[in-house]
Structures are given as C-alpha cells and as structure tokens.
Amino acid sequence: MTAPVDPTTTTAWADLQQDYDQLEPDLRGWFADDPERAERLSFDAADLHVDLSKNLIDDKIVADLVALGRAVDLEGRRAAMFAGEKINVTEGRAVLHTALRATPDQHIEVDGHDVVPDVHAELDKIYAFAERVRSGEWRGVTGKRIRAVVNIGIGGSDLGPVMVYEALRPYGQEGLELRFISNIDPTDLFEKTAYLDPEETLFIVVSKTFTTLETLTNARLAKSWLLDGLVAAAAVPEGDAEAQLKAISKHFVAVSTALEKVAEFGIDPANTFGFWDWVGGRYSVGSAVGTSVAVAIGPERFAEFLAGMHAMDEHFRTTPLERNVPALMGLLNVWDVNFLGAHTHAVLPYSQYLHRFPAYLQQLTMESNGKSVRWDGSPVTTETGEVFWGEPGTNGQHAFYQLIHQGTRIVPTDFIAFANPAHPLKDGAQDVHELFLANFFAQTAALAFGKTADEVRAEGTDESLVSARVFPGNRPSTSIMAPSLTPSVLGQLIALYEHITFTQGVVWGIDSFDQWGVELGKKLAIAVGPAIEGDADALAKQDPSTRGLIEYYRAHR
Ligand code: F6P
C-alpha cells in the first residue's frame, strides 16, 4: 500500500492557506456581485440537487480544493476502493459496500473471486424470506402470523436498519411492526418487547462478528422472553428441549459474517443470512443487515433503495471532481475543518421521517474519521473528523439554532428537504408542507445573509436592543433537495454521505474503515466485571475514581 500523501505539503494546501488568509466572508456582497453564483455552485447527482453557494467559498477555493483532491490521489483511491483493493490496511480487507448494490452484470473481484453473484444470491434469499413473512406464509410455532419483527443489534447492526425503517415508514406493511433493541441496558429489551405476543414475534439477531456483548446478551434475553411466553401460553411444554428448538427456529433468524458462531448460539443455519468481511458495520445497511427493512418495505422497494445507492456510487465513481457532489462536499468539509476551524457539522433534515439520520451519520462519519494516525501508522498532520450532530427542523430551530446563528463558533450545516410531502395536510387553506419548507428556505437565507443593525433599526427596535438582534450572517450551509423521500432517494443520501466520508479520509490519509478505538471499550467492560461482583483484588486494581464509583454502586444497589 502506498504511503498517504501529507496534504499539508501540497501546493494546493498552500494555495488554500492563502485563500483563507485573504478571505473576507461576505455572502451578501458575493451574491449581489455575481448573479450566477447560486447556479454555478449548485450541482445535481442522481435525484439530488445540492446547492453549495451559501458556503464560504468562491471559484478559486473550489478549484484549489479539487486540486487538493487530485494531489492526494483521491481519484486513485476511489478506483482502488471500487476495484476491491485492500484499502482497509489495518484490518487487511477490501472495502466493497459498493458491491452490495452492484448490478448483476458487474464483476468485482476480491482475491480473484467475483463477489457480485454471491451478493445477488444472498439478496434472493433475503427477498424470499421477506416475502414469506409479509405474505403470512412464515408463521410462528403456534401457526400465528408474524406481526412484529424485532431487530437485535448495535452500532452498524442497528443504526442503519432503524434509520431506514423510520425514514421509509410510509412504505411499510400495515399490521407488521418493526422494533429495534440495541442497548445492553435491560430497559431497552423490556420496553421493546412490551405488549408483544411471543407467538406473533420474530427476532432478527444481527451481528457482523457475532461476538458483541450487547447483542448476544439481548439475544439470550429475547430467547428467554420468547420461551417463557410460549410456555405461559401453553404453546410449548416446559422443559421440552426439542419443542424449544422448534420454537426458536420459527422465531429467530440471524444475520452475520460468522456463520459458525450463529450455529453455536443455537440459530438454525437455514435461518441465517450472511455477508462478508469487506463490508464495514457502518456501511452495511445494504447487505443482509437490512433484512428487517426488506421485510418492512418488501423486496421491490428494497431493490429500489439499493438502486438509489448504486446511482450515487456511479456518480461518485465516474464524475470529474469538478462536478462530483460527494467529492466536493467532502473537500468542502476539509475546508471548513482545516481552514475555517469548524469543530462540528450539523445535519438538519426538514423531514420528520429522517429523525434518526443524524444519529446514523454520527457512526458513519465519526467511527470512520475519528482517527489520529494515518493508514501507514504515522501521526496525522492535520485536524481530522469533525463532530456530526443534528435534529430535524423545525424542532432544532427552537433548541440549538440560536448558537448557529449568533454564537461565537462556526457550525457548517447541511439542510435536507423534499419538494413533496408524504402527507399533504392542510391547515384551513394553508398547505402545511409549504409552511414547513418556508422555514427551511428562511433558515438557510438567515444564516447566510444575517440581519444588519440598520435592518434591525428599520423595524423600530430600541437602540439598546439593536446589537442583540443583529445576525452576523456568513454562516455556511449546504442545501440538499430531492423530489420526495423515496427508497431510492434515501439510498442516494446514504451513499452520498459514505463517499463524503471517504473523501475526507483520503485527504487526511486515514483508514476510514477500521475502529480500533471502539474495541478497547469492549475489552475494558469485561475486565471490570469481577470488581463489580465484589472481588477485592479486582477492585484494588481499579483507579481511585473508578473504585469509588463501583463502591457507590455496591452500597446503593
Ligand atoms: O461499535 C463498534 C462496532 O464494532 C461497530 O463498528 C459495529 O457496527 C458494532 O460494533 C456492532 O458490531 P457487530 O455487528 O459485530 O455486532
């Protein structure tokens, strides 16, 4: 693997530094002097329309960012990823979530093996299963139809499916509900199984490694919940191991890359859907990890979702950097982080259905680019991953927008909105979706153009209050619009952010596909177990703060 290029040593970086030194943000003036600005800095990718013009950029900065992308060989890395090269160097793996949405005529090889037929064979299996559940052919052990599908997983085995399910609720099947258990806090399982009938409930245990403590614990609890419920309903005789196994086979399926571990756990291999080590957990919603979603929305819609991802993959793979939306957005984020000094990035969907999208993006972006070393083990030479966060508009407007408008920190924002609502409701003569969109349009304008002291005075404001009511403006935002939130458009949005994340990782020279920082936490939690149970030696080995907390717990439990 070639060593990463240090971006700070490139001519493009020096040019960008000069751009920054000469920058005098003036979005009002820039728009006034340049009537073509909005058009020139707006781009289309598949069904997405992306307006970058309200960012603190001009044509020269964009050209220098593109030059930076070329200088760090973004195009070469992109080609390597799509070709199945092992660009996840710290884990020695290919990075091929794009193969999950490849068309059957494509050939993508890993170690000389074409993975595309495998992908489609697994999809066929998932689709057949989804149809059986949706049609009522797959029944619980007592012959009842499945009414609730409960996904048990965490991180990438949860955040993608739950986000997509919530986003595509209008495409769900009536009478079939999905629930998601992720946290090892027993409250999660308790609440998510509340009021469910075990005879009508199907669990999908999703774990790439099938070793994750949270997921395996919850799967065992779910097994007990199911069997206790079936025994109580006299559907399974108590202590009858064979009957129990039969019940489990009707109420548990699994998704994993570790099929032998699934079998050890007691789930029938015939009820198991696989994927591959070249799919990272946070990039896996288009694999069997999305099985619960395929059940909810059906195979046809799931195929549209994958096609949307593929459309964005093709845009990213083939479009020159000058018009390549994920590349431009990734490079823009580099500008914001490394030159403008942004520490965070807000994602603000004007769509209640996308309420889990910011949480999904937190794992995608921060587990990928929250790194301090490069892929050759050397330290990074710049700041890396920014903190992603957000909430849907308009709720966020009444919570944290104050800081974005008038605070001392720069917070680049992505606004996402759809021309057509899922539910065209009216309040008298008022189209409520229009009222909603009016907020979206107004917010991006207010951030960019602010409100001057003279404008505030012209409203008759008392002079003593003028400064508090001034909006400085020049707050960068990107607006993303699409006709409506369909499965395809959602797939496009996900792939867009995957490739933005990739672009930033390439500039910073980091492996965006490992997550060693999370592995430590998994080990530490297990190591602390004996101390909690009261083992004096284990307790003595804890630091004074942790020991004090454990002792508090033991005294108050
Ligand atoms: O949080 C760390 C992590 O490894 C994520 O990358 C992953 O999505 C999650 O745990 C769940 O892992 P698994 O699917 O193997 O249970």
Please provide a written account of the structure.
The chain has 557 residues and is of the alpha/beta class. The protein has helices at 11-22, 27-33, 37-40, 59-71, 74-82, 116-135, 159-167, 186-193, 213-232, 241-251, 259-265, 291-297, 299-318, 325-339, 357-369, 401-406, 432-449, 453-458, 463-469, 487-508, 516-527, 529-532, 536-540, 544-556, and strands at 42-45, 48-51, 109-110, 113-114, 148-152, 177-181, 201-206, 252-256, 272-274, 344-350, 387-389, 413-418, 426-427, 430-431, 477-482. Helix 4 (59-71) crosses helix 14, helix 12 (291-297) crosses helix 13 and helix 15 packs parallel to helix 20 (487-508). The termini are far apart. Bound molecules: 6-O-phosphono-beta-D-fructofuranose. 6-O-phosphono-beta-D-fructofuranose binds next to loops. The site of 6-O-phosphono-beta-D-fructofuranose (F6P) has 14 residues, from loops. It is an enzyme of class 5 (isomerase). It catalyses: alpha-D-glucose 6-phosphate = beta-D-fructose 6-phosphate. Keywords: Cytoplasm, Gluconeogenesis, Glycolysis, Isomerase.
Quick recap:
GO terms for molecular function: isomerase activity. With 557 residues, the chain is of the alpha/beta class.
